[in-house]
Amino acid sequence: MKKVLLLFAFILTTVFAAQAQTRFGVKVGANYSGFEGDDADGADRRFGFHAGVTANFPVVEDFFSIKPEILYSQKGAKLEDIDEVKYRLSYIDVPVLAQINAGPLYFEAGPQVSFRVQDKLEIDDSSIDVDSDGLKRTAIGYAAGIGLASTPLGLSIGVRYNGDFSNLYDDDDAADFRNGVFMLTLGYMFPSR
């Protein structure tokens, strides 16, 4: 499934790369992440950040475009039932979003594949790397958001929610945790040539 989604993203990128108005850019912002799922009642949200690159491939000029991204994203949650325990999970997120523009306002939604690159468990301010054989390396999810873009300047600000369809753990008997992240993003699109 992961290979199929990556192949699909590559094909879309290649097909739309010939478009004259293709633009590339950078993004950075804050994450407010937590766990969703049946067992997530005792989990509080935590702050992190995200940063990465984006592209915008117009399909219908000034109205509809495809927007793939590659983002480093910090996720996780705080569990405070016994001690203060923080899950610090880092991912490479690869969303492929459909974007609809309505003047300076835009709406975006689409699938997302996330690849876990680091995980730490912090207990009472002591951080340890976790041997996380039980955690899934990849997650399939979705992203949806809204924002404002200043096309001539290339600046944008947006809010987005992304969530996972799949459980964080491989074991079916493990806790039912899925990542859920609110994002506030600042972006800059480089001028097209």
From TrEMBL:
Signal peptide: 1-20
Pfam families: OMP_b-brl_2
Bilayer-crossing regions: none
Keyword Signal: yes
InterPro entries, A to Z: Beta-barrel_OMP_2 (IPR025665), OMP/PagP_B-barrel (IPR011250)
Highest taxon, organism lineage: Bacteria
Boundaries of every Outer membrane protein beta-barrel domain copy: 19-162
Signal keyword on record: yes
Protein keywords: Signal
Protein name per the record: Outer membrane protein beta-barrel domain-containing protein
Species the sequence originates in: Pontibacter actiniarum
